[in-house]
Amino acid sequence: MTSASTILNVHTPASSFAIVHSCKCSFASMTEDSLDDLCDKLSRKSGTGYTGQRVGAGWLKYAFNETIWNLDDDADYTIFVWRQQPASSDTASTSTALDHRETPTLHLHAPHAPLPAPPAYRNPAYYVFAARPDAALDSFAVFSLKHRRNVSSSLTAPRPPLVSYLYETGINFKFFLVRGTPGSGKTYLCRLLYDYIMAEDPEARLTLLTFWEPVGTLQESLNNPRVANGDSIDVADGDGRRHWVLIDEAQTTYSDAVLWSTFLKDPPSSFSIVLFASYGIQNNNSADIIDDINGTSIPGLYFSQEDYATLLKIRQAKEELPILAPDLKQWVYEISNGHIGATDSILRTVTTQTKQLHLPEVSLDDFMGRFPSAEVALKACSRGAAFDRGLPKESALKDKKNIPAVGFLLQLLQADGLVFDHLPDDAEQAHKKGWVTVDEDGSTFRVEFPSLFHRVRLSYLLCGATKVPPDVDVMSLVDFVTAVVASFSTNVLRQPARHTAGPRSTASIPEAQWHNEFYVGAYRVTGGSGLWLSPEFGTGSTGTVGRIDFYVKGSKMWGIEVLRDGDRIQDHLRRFLPGGAYHNWIQVGAIQEYVVLDFRSHTAPRKEFPTHPRLLHIEFSNEYRNFEIKDNLLKPLRSGTLLA
């Protein structure tokens, strides 16, 4: 443990000063002075230009690894202190703070206050964030534009097919809407489009509004200096030049009837307006970014495989990201679904955890082996700011106003997406908070989590950290498996849609269905309490087998793995033995008991595995009405009848 008094440099738009702030860094305790202490000191500091105002969330930012980070809550502060550790630590060597000195630097500005306008003094040290120092940008815009410039060159993929498509769509349409949940990359995409327009049509007028804040008339709102950057907007202007208007966080416009009924409903012919929003709005006459529009294929908002491959090359060339083995490379893409915030968060963790291994390439086992448990691995991979924005905060989960939305999240956890003829109110509330995605296809609405990683993380936040019910607490693992299988639905297992040739087909049920059926059954037995999805759940397309799918916490500390029809069963079992991926977790007690479940659709197991007592075979008969559980020596242990 080390303790030190740290000098913090602080820059505001009008001044610079330093304060003394004590930090303490250890595995168990990260801070001596808290974030509240820091905000108190800054609030009391005279000469900042904010006398009488309380410094809080949205006021502070800092630079690390060529990215600008918020300092809004205790989680942000813990990470900030951790990043200030000496250069000998794993993380300090990656820091490239903007002042390039050991003294950490904060940038302070009231989130919605205008910046000083000439001829007032403007502190150059604060405007180091700005892409164009002469632009009258607010703190959020300054952060975003700096982020845009640096990210496009060194942190993520330039995405030319998608950006060029947006540009061409803007030429052909007066107005359209790009939707994406928080952290999905829509803000970054907005900045990429801004750059692209400047390069493709330097004579065009270009305005970026970082969000919508009505002030006075419509004309005054469109030119609000707090949010508007670039050329001024004149709705009656007709000089022949195209005028691009990009509005980020455009969901903030939905309550402004004047804006929608006049300017957006029928824009002047010279305008191209692109809105970037967390969710859509019905009856707004917009051309949403959907799978197909006017016969033209539209690239997705998330990373494609090509985008992802480009991203890896950029980060491996300009950062310390190691070469990823095929299984780790594909796992990151599968669990993130190409979601930009999730991808970024996981890759940053891969970088910090594996850079000292000095391996020619890093496998999924190498990466997971850096953590004492799957729980720690999940938390580490979830720390990215962009990914975190798409998750409900603990306070939001406890807020009574959010009970419908949280209840819907629990419902969605048990399904691989839900389809509705009419979007329920609880789903709409969750959607508007950015927690789920909604795709409208004609008369139906499909609701999903933004990525598999969101589903996994929320399964832990909502259920994994809670105690198992008393009746489950007294069960053995075999009793638990029996109760779960007995709760399976015969009708669901026999659904023709799940088979290639109908319910009497000899085709095997897909492994993904067994995963989901077991999770739904386990949720019924536990009520969700103590049950959470593994970070490796549902990511088996790489051909790598033997991944734990579920954990049951509390006093149990169970690990449960699912396979079908004996598929590469030896590989599954080997991972729990000495030298296997999970053996260390068993040794340290992160997994106190485990089981490998071999679900049999039509073929009976024939081979005994005398050295693997944790193996159970589950056979079904009478068209999935009955089941029997056999041990590793093929001896019957339990039997029963499924639900109808």
TrEMBL record:
InterPro entries given for it? Answer: P-loop_NTPase (IPR027417)
Source organism, top-level taxon: Eukaryota
Q: What name goes with this protein?
A: Uncharacterized protein
Q: Which organism is it from?
A: Mycena rosella (Pink bonnet)
